[in-house]
Amino acid sequence: MPSSSPMSPLSRRGLLAAGGAVGLGALLTACGSDDSGSGSGSDPKGKGWSFTDGRGEKVSLDAVPQRIVAYTATAAALWDFGVRDQVVGVFGPTKQKNGDPDVLAGDMDISKVGIIGNAFGEFDLEKYAKLRPQLLISNMYLKDALFYVPDESKDKIYKLAPHVAMKAAGVPMLEVVQQYAKLAESLGADVKAKAVTDAKARFEKAAERLRKAAKSGIRVMAAAGAPDLFYVSDPDASTDLQYFKELGVDFVKPKKLSKQGFFEELSWENADKYEADLIILDNRTQSLQPKALASKPTWKDLPAVKADQVAPWAAEPRFSYAGAAPLLENLAEAIEKAKKVR
Questions:
Q1: SS3 content of the chain, % helix, strand, coil (to 5)
Q2: Across the strands, what pairs with 310?
Q3: Given Cys at both, which of 75, 99, 328, 340 links 206, Cβ 3.0 to 4.6 Å?
């Protein structure tokens, strides 16, 4: 599993040089004190802004933040809820080599945001400072760790703006989506807008479809492929799998989890350790897809693969109703079409 996975040990690599770019110190000072200019704004009701995040910490500002920098998937979820112009920068997989948006960017218009990092370990502190951020937001998969914020430079990063951590593991996906709705509403979004309510209705309909499909007893294995290892995910750790399990989906439960939890690492020689009727495979750019896995004999010999019962898995969900509804629909469809091969 590549290190940028939320199921990985999350080691922080590729960090910024210790001293930063020339003039960074001046930027830090200026950014920390500059409340003027475009987007600084003020709360018209004079009540300020606050939000209690996934750490249980209450983050407060004098006004609703108008200059937000967020992890790409975080920004994409907020975009779905209507928080758009306030997001001035993103970090994390955003743009593919061909210029197309990364899958994590969802429906977000990436031409309207500054990209301060496009891969794990990338976080351009100078670009971040120039954006004059008023709030930093990211998902939290491990306690107190903001995803894709490098450990080695986090102290400098956190000096520039308050930060919000959105809990993205250990709770079912629906709870995370609901927290995102609360965050978006606090930032001024109309969560009762037709686009949002329509997406919620679609989500609820899809959840019922999956609940019905799951009664077939099809066993599902959530997995990811890397050159040397095959990863089997723990349905009790990943927030989306937890929710699917609540709806009745029968998942393979790995027995020997890695140190961080989330998955079991298998050598390709042992890829057949668990039996499944359907495999859902991590669809992110850093994970091997079926075409690349075709060279692995043990992959081709898996009953689900032989039966052509492999479906994409958005291993890092977009935590909005619009982002999550297709995940439910796709899994329901895959289960409906699958036959038992165990």
A1: 35, 20, 45
A2: 279
A3: 328
Task: Please state, in angstroms and rounded to a whole number, the distance separating the CA atoms of residues 146 and 141.
Answer: 8
In this prediction the pTM is: 0.83
Q: What are phi and psi of 144, to 5 degrees?
A: 65, 10
Q: What's the rounded Cα separation, in Å, for the pair 232 and 276?
A: 11
Looking at 99-215, which runs of residues are DSSP E strands?
114-117, 135-142, 145-146, 163-167
State the alpha helices, DSSP H only, in 259-315: 290-293, 297-300, 303-306
Cα separation of 137 and 117, whole Å?
A: 14
226 dihedral zone (left: phi>0; alpha: psi -120 to 50; beta): beta
Please give the Cα distance from 57 to 185 (Å, whole number).
Answer: 18
Token duo for residue 218: 């099809």
> How confident is residue 46, by pLDDT bands cut at 50, 70 and 90?
low
Cβ neighbours of residue 124 closer than 8 Å, sequence gap 6 or more: 16, 116, 117
- The arithmetic mean of pLDDT across residues 311-336, rounded, is 96
- Residue 18's pLDDT is what? 25
Q: Is the pLDDT of residue 160 over 80?
A: yes
Provide the token pair at 323.
């982002």
**CA of residue 119 relative to chain centroid, distance:** 13
Q: Which two tokens stand for residue 56?
A: 């249980």
d(CA 211, CA 204): 11
Measured distance CA(123)–CA(143) in Å, rounded:
20
Closest CA relative to residue 220, chosen from 58, 74, 342: 342
Classify burial at 4, counting beta carbons within 10 Å of its beta carbon; exposed 0-12, middle 13-18, buried 19 or more: buried
HSE, side-chain direction, 13 A CA sphere, residue 167: 18
| Alpha-helix runs per DSSP H in 161-238 | 173-186, 194-214
Closest CA to 122 of 153, 163, 84: 153
Angle at 7 between CA 6 and CA 12, to 5 degrees: 60
